[in-house]
Amino acid sequence: MRLPLRFAISVLIGCCVLTAWAAGAQSERRMRQRPAPETPAAQPSVAPAAPAASPSQAPASTPEPASAGWTWKDGSGQTRSRADLDEILAEHKRWVESKQRQGKPADLTGADLTGVDLTGAELAHATLANTRLTGAVLEDVDLDDADLIDADCTDCDLQYAKLHGAILYGAKLVRAQLGFEANPAAGTGAGRTKWSPRRVTQDLRAALQAGKAIPEADKAGADLSRADLRGTDLTDAWLRNANLDATIYEPAVDPTINGIARAKHLDLATYIDDPEALVRLRKAFSDGGFVQAENKITYAVNRKQTALDPVGWRWFRRIAFDWTCQYGMNPGRPLKIIGLVWLAMAVFYFWCMHLRGRSGIRLEATREARGRERNWRFEVLLPGLTRPITPATTTRNPGHRLRREWRLARAAMFFSLTSAFNIGYQELNIGEWLKMLTKREYDLRAVGWARTVAGVQSLLSVYMLALWVLTYFGHPFE
Predict the structure, then answer these.
(1) Where in the chain are the domains?
(2) Mean pLDDT of the chain
(3) How far apart are alpha carbons 158 and 255 in whole angstroms?
């Protein structure tokens, strides 16, 4: 029996599924690459300029390199020199490198380090609680697991700083630079981009001066993974490309929306006490048109809520909503699952057609006898479509077996496609519509345990299709 039209229908519907998949992926890429909304005044900037008071933007407020005359005050109010600070930093570095066997940990609690330049310093596990770091340059500083409770980091430059596990509870990060920033107002020439001279190679610096775009891979921000931001004041802070993996996000004041919308691992941010800060941030993203960032926050909130659920409900939500569409963050994934299931089941049904026994795929057709109107119905078990092949006939006619296998493969793809949409309501049944497109009246029917597998495929495909519609055109998880 020839099945050219059935094969064409299978390929056509498969192409439709793949086209919808590609369209969803393209839409997701457009949402990721969506530029920040411009201000009413036309600006050629890649990102909005931070306030003029920022030390990393305004040359007048940028702290000058520390000199011999620069002084600071320790926690007791005693005036100290730069040499004293360098000695404390050197002892702390020895303490870290020797794994706490030599040297002495830095304890700068309550110190006044206004305008200090600590570029590249080693301050992991240091104590900087209540420390005044206004206008400080902390680029490339290692502050992993540091204690920055109630520290004043206003106008700080923290680009490329490592803050993995740092405690920033109640810290002030007003106008702090925590991520890469393209500021057309910086420098002497219009359109010049700000960069960190310690991180940019000569070739990249030449490209920046020529006005070329900076590759995303060359942009980096502060590492805030697992940092504690509870009660932090992030007024006008810039977090573009900052790493927020497992960051406890419960600040008192949110940062600049345009900056944090492009932070890395925004979907992995979490909370401990209250999701109110993340929900507030999601609303700001929604009002600003950052669709992808809004979906990431939705995923972060639901992911945390799932982790707090009982074991049974937790695994149900994880399998039904996280693995399928990531709580709406990846609306195109259900279509991908439908396509993959269709292909996998086509291979499975092709294998079933070679089985002998009561389970398998059967062909039911109506045939007209000698042009008369009298029809009779017959049923065969595939691969009974063709006569049995013996070793002798296979040797004499090797192409016969290939043609036979190709016909069975087309039938398997068509049956997998109709099984995927075999559930409907009354006249609304896509599977039946597909069968009506064939030239001849026939039906492929699974029997035995193959029927059970086809039923599972139908349920899974319909669920994926419904999930795609809900997540692509709505917000069911908010």
Answers:
(1) 4-28+334-473, 53-180+220-273
(2) 77
(3) 14
